[in-house]
Please model this.
Amino acid sequence: MVAALLSGAARGGPPTTATQAPEATQVPATVQAPALTFEDAVQQSLARNPTLTQAKAQVARAQALVTEARAAFLPVLTANGVYTQLDGDRVQNDRVVQPGSAFNANLNLSVPLVAPQRWLAASRAKQAVDVARASESDVRRLVASGAAQAYLSVVLQRRLLAVAVQARDTARAHLEFSQARRSKGLGTRLDEARAQRELYDNEARVQLAATALNRSREALGVAVGVDGPLDAAGDAVLASPPALAEALKAVEQREDIASQRARLSLAERTYAESWADFMPTLSASAQPYFQTPETVTLPTWGFQAQVLLSVPLYDGGFRYGARRERAALVADARGALDTLMQRARGEVRSADEQLQGATAAAVEQGHSAESARETLQLSTEAYRAGATTNLDVVDAERTARDAETNALLAQDAVLQARLNLLVASGEFPRDVAGK
Model:
C-alpha cells in the first residue's frame, strides 16, 4: 500500500489506492518447495518424523520383552546328543563298566511349577508396554507441536518478506519521484541521495527476509520428516483454546503427565512385589534317553525325572538392596510427576496470560500500522506540494515499514500463544490429528 502512494506521486498523478500493487515489484528467488496445509503438515509429521519412528521402536521393544519374560515360566524342551571317546574300555571284574566309545541322545523337558518371581516379572513387562505407549503419545505431542510452530514460522516469514518487498518498492518509487523532481529543477541531490540510501537499505532487508523464509521452509521439512523444504499452503487454522479453568483441569490428561503417571504406577508395583524375591521356586524335569552301547547303569532306552525345590536362604543382602532401590525409584518417579504437574499448570497459566496480552497488543499494533500508513500518505502529499522535505517522507516510510512488521509479529504472537495454550492443556494435536 505504501508503495502505491509514492508510485502515484512519481507519475505526477494522484496517489493510487491501497489495493493496487506497485508496478515494479520484484521478489528475490526463494527455494521452490511443495506446499502443505496446516492439517496435512501436522498429520504427515506424525507419520514421517524419525523421532516418532524411534518411539514406535521402543514400543516394539517393550512388546518383545514381554515375550522374553513370559518364556521364563513356560516349559523348555531341548534335544541333546553326546559322543564320548575314551582311550579304552573301562573294565571291572571282567565286565565293561564304561565302553571306550559311546553315544547318548536325550530329550530334556523342564517345567517351572511354582515361580512367583517369573510370573510377576512377565506381568510387569506387560505394564511396561503401556508405559512405552504413553511415552509414544508424548512424543506425538512434541512432534506435532514442533511441526505446527515450524508452519507458523513459514507463514510469518512469508508475510515479513511481503512487507520488506513493499517497503523496497516504496523506496524505489520515492527515488524515482526525487529524480523526476530534480530533472525539473524542483528537487536537490540531497533528496535523491536520501531516497537512494533508503532503497539500498530496504533492498538488503528483502534479501535477508528471503533467506529467513528459505530457512523456515527447511525447518518445516525437517519437522515433517521430509528430506527437503516445505512451504505453507495457507494460514494455520487453530481451534479455540479452552478457558483457563477448563485448561487447568484438562492438563491432567496431557500425554507427558499420563506417561509419567504410568512410570510411577510401574515403579510402585515393582516395589510392592518385592516379596516374590523371598519365595521358593518349584520345577520339574523329565529326560528320556538313548544310550549305545548300554552300560551297567544306563540301558539302551530309559528315562529319568526330577522335582527341584529351591528355597533362597542367604544371598549376601541382594534382595534387601533391590528393595531399597525400588523404593528410591518410586520416590523419584513421584517427585518427577509432582514437578511435571506444577510445570504443566504453570505453562497453562503462562500461555493464557500470553494469549490475553498478545491479543491486546495485536489490536494496538494494528491501529499503529493504520496510523503509520496515514502518516506516510500525508507526508507524501505534503512533499509533493513542496510544503516539506523528503526527510519526513523517509521517516514515514521507515515508520510504516516497522509498524507493518510489528503488526505481523503481533499477529504471529497471538497464534503462537494460542498454540502454546492448546499444547499446554493437552488439546493439541487432538483437534487436528484426530487423536
About this structure: Strands lie at 35-36, 76-85, 90-92, 95-98, 101-114, 231-232, 281-292, 301-310. The chain has one domain: 2-8+27-433. Residues 1-25 have pLDDT under 50 and may be disordered.
